[in-house]
User: Fold this.
Amino acid sequence: MAYPWDTVAIIGVGAIGASIGLGLRQRQLARHVIGATRTSKSAKAAMEIGAVDEMVETMEKAAENAELVVVCTPVQSIAEHVQRCAAAASSEVVLTDGGSTKANLCQALEGLQHGTFVGSHPLAGTHETGPRAGDGDLFRGRTVIMTPVESTPGDTTNRVRGFWQSLEAEVELMTPEQHDQLLASSSHAPHLIASALAASTCEDALRLAASGWKDATRIAQGSVELWQQILRDNRANVLSSLNRFGELLHAMTEALEHDDPALLTQLLERGKQNRDAVGN
Amino acid sequence: MAYPWDTVAIIGVGAIGASIGLGLRQRQLARHVIGATRTSKSAKAAMEIGAVDEMVETMEKAAENAELVVVCTPVQSIAEHVQRCAAAASSEVVLTDGGSTKANLCQALEGLQHGTFVGSHPLAGTHETGPRAGDGDLFRGRTVIMTPVESTPGDTTNRVRGFWQSLEAEVELMTPEQHDQLLASSSHAPHLIASALAASTCEDALRLAASGWKDATRIAQGSVELWQQILRDNRANVLSSLNRFGELLHAMTEALEHDDPALLTQLLERGKQNRDAVGN
Assistant:
């Protein structure tokens, strides 16, 4: 049988890495899916749920014979891990990642000596973590943003685009800078705001929290370690999104303070319109 | 057959009123459920889904022979509607409501001439509106807060408590002031924050909004007309909750601005702890 890919290496088998492995294996898209991860507990779980054919001790060993390497480690480590994998692999290796920020990463990897890299960000997160949160259909119908730069060979972009599409994702291309600016507004700043909301709710009120509060703060359950890395890596854009949010909140607060129903209504309508436009 | 209640009147057959009617009728808790509402369209829908036995033209007519009247109209109108219903009903009538704010309402109804009133707030909202969003099991396992005041007869409190319990809700008693303070923190301020977040998200980013953003802003889909009334009626408490939120957000923003990972981590942990404590 001819597989679309020969060996695919997955570095980091958290929820995203494990979902990629499951998606590849369930669709028979790769002859061999090989993984490497930090802890033996995660490695064991990834094997148990069938996310990989094999787990190996080091990312270098996983990358050695890989045609494609997908680095799914926390954003702070991705650049280093891509470099280590590239150095261990054949010169034809194609590398990509699953990180939530792109500008610093793509800049750091501009002069990659060995192999070719293109950045990816699947917009299919979950606040659950670890291989057991993996789902082979996680990417179905979801958007994956890819961020090729001028030096990225067209063939690398095409192959990685085909990879995500074979997992049933919709791929969209933009620059790393555009990505980071948009995601600050749609994902990173909202995370910090949801966390501040959860943190500011007094203990007695927590007891009465109903579905509205639970929805509004759900993302604050995400891994603090991962999210502080994302927020710091995309600091300038997040701060500017927070600034925009602060202006709206200030306007609403003032409308309430001055008991101005017309203005309050107008501002709440703006929120409702944006929310309704996105749908369920 | 002996029913727990003879005639129950429901004033306003939106999602909450219709859910009460359905819950009563599905459990055969009332001999006759009679409704009144503003528009003939809602009246027709309430009949079609089986939320009531009968719809009548005016709330006075609905209240006339009722043993219990539940006013489920927008918060701004509840006091007036309770008074009108009380005046039209027998002097033994018990009245309650389903509104999201309690202090002003309970104060306005302190000197009710006719019948007895106790405030209720079922914490079982939905951002969907209208009778067709009704669900006879909406209150199952949910909390209903009741806010008796010094002048409320114990018998009135007991009967209304029994009413909510027969719809399978858990009843909790507190003062109207306590209610408004806690709900500002768990529900009203979060609504305004979610709306500001939705309103501040730039158009290009809306296109990329994934499940995190959707969750965080879901409540902003609620009726603007209803919510501006709630926010204004509970203005002082909402402003003080927003102030608390603003302090947390400011601290997080500063930690990000100064690139202080330890402080940022500590603050995000606080959000995660509160969110984890509430559960799914």
Summary: The CA atoms of residues 6 and 31 of chain A lie 5 Å apart. The longest helix of chain A spans residues 176-200. Chain A touches chain B through 81 residues (CB under 8 Å). The longest strand of chain A covers residues 5-11.
